[in-house]
Amino acid sequence: MARAALRLERDRGEPDRFGRVRDELARLPPRPAGGRGEETLFVTRPLLPPLTEFLPYLAEIWQSRQLTNGGPFHAQLEAELAAHLGVEHLALFANGTLALMTALKALAVEGEAITTPYSFVATAHSLLWNNITPVFADVDSATCNLDPERVAAAITPRTSAILAVHCYGAPCDVEAIGAIARENELKVIYDAAHAFGVKHRGQSLLRHGDMAVLSFHATKVFHTFEGGAIVCPDADAKRRVDFLKNFGFADEVTIEDCGINGKMNEVQAAMGLLQLKHVDRAIERRAAIDAFYRRALAGAPGIEMLAPIPGHTPNYSYFPILVDPAWRGGREALYARLRQASVHGRRYFYPLISDMPMYRDLPSAAPENLPRARALAEKILCLPIYPDLEAHEAQRVVDAITG
Ligand code: T4K
Prior knowledge:
Layout: H1 2-11, H2 19-26, E1 41-42, H3 51-64, H4 72-85, E2 89-93, H5 96-106, E3 112-115, H6 122-129, E4 133-136, H7 148-153, E5 159-165, H8 174-184, E6 187-191, E7 199-200, E8 203-204, E9 211-215, E10 228-232, H9 235-244, E11 249-251, E12 254-255, H10 266-297, E13 303-305, E14 312-313, E15 319-323, H11 330-340, E16 343-344, H12 371-379, E17 380-383, H13 391-402
Helix pairs in contact: 1-3, 3-10, 4-10, 5-6, 5-9, 10-13
Bound molecules: ligand T4K.
């Protein structure tokens, strides 16, 4: 309603109410320069559509004064995202970590959960916050994801779930993990923080598992500044998740469970609606950069790239390379050389979660249990990839590696 009113004002040729903001934007200093006077290239930069496209959403929020607690943008984004992603039931969250914690609670996971040591720390932290013991299993070197054989070998009478990660958006072996879970009556939660829009055999990857959890952090392919979501299998599961993210309130006077405050606010949801208009184009840009790196680094000494996975439609969220430890000082030396050239690659995921102080004394964290994850963590370097990265900047990255 209010947005329609705003459009009308513009249609009537009234003065450009955002002109002053535009002028101020034009006066902003350029992006930060690196050590040699070159612009620093970060591992990622957020997708930011023109600010003028965001202002009408803000005007609407100001007018309605509905800032959070399930406002109209929240409802609209849940519906549009579900349609965009090809899923039926999706609950928005303030961030991906709260969504992970809530998914585990909603599925009543307890005791032990088998998980990967090769991920962002939030994966295992979400277990610890729920008093669930993480049991680390080794990964498959080709995909960086949990190896189903190692998962099966890690099951004990206390295991109640598998918390797997689609690392870099590459699909886990969902068929094998699903079969193990069915056989052993385990829940499966996919940490799909990297897997926005990813398809597996033509269908949304998010349809696998009892729940799949997305992150909409600023560094992700699609973002709401901070944000996240749980993809639920049915309306009942979404209803339960919706209670849990709102302190457990079923209505004004009924508290169903010990919930948390995990709600996404209206400004975040508005950003999501705007992102949806740009995200397909942004993924196309990422695909072009991915293709450029693959061509430019093919056959480069000391550098290996992860092979594309058959039947997988990727989102190009990361561009990981594996650096041979015997090549010119290995990954650490290359990381330092790139920093000198103002290229800030990131060692996602080093150190392993299992090496962190709160996990390293667990029996499953023993180095001999996780040799493949350890080898990956020692070699990995993620290169800059984001929609605004220019061809000459990607070339700068390649030159810094090969030069
Ligand atoms: N599960 C997995 C598998 C995850 O990867 C993550 C998050 C989660 C769960 C948890 O989801 P959330 O609770 O975060 O929704 C970043 C992100 O903070 C984190 O969301 C992400 N994974 C992780 C892989 O990366 P940092 O500490 O490396 O981010 P930071 O601040 O160093 O940013 C990296 C680069 O991005 C910067 O050098 C510059 C650029 N950047 C970053 C921000 C925040 C910008 O240009 N603008 C920005 O606003 O963790």
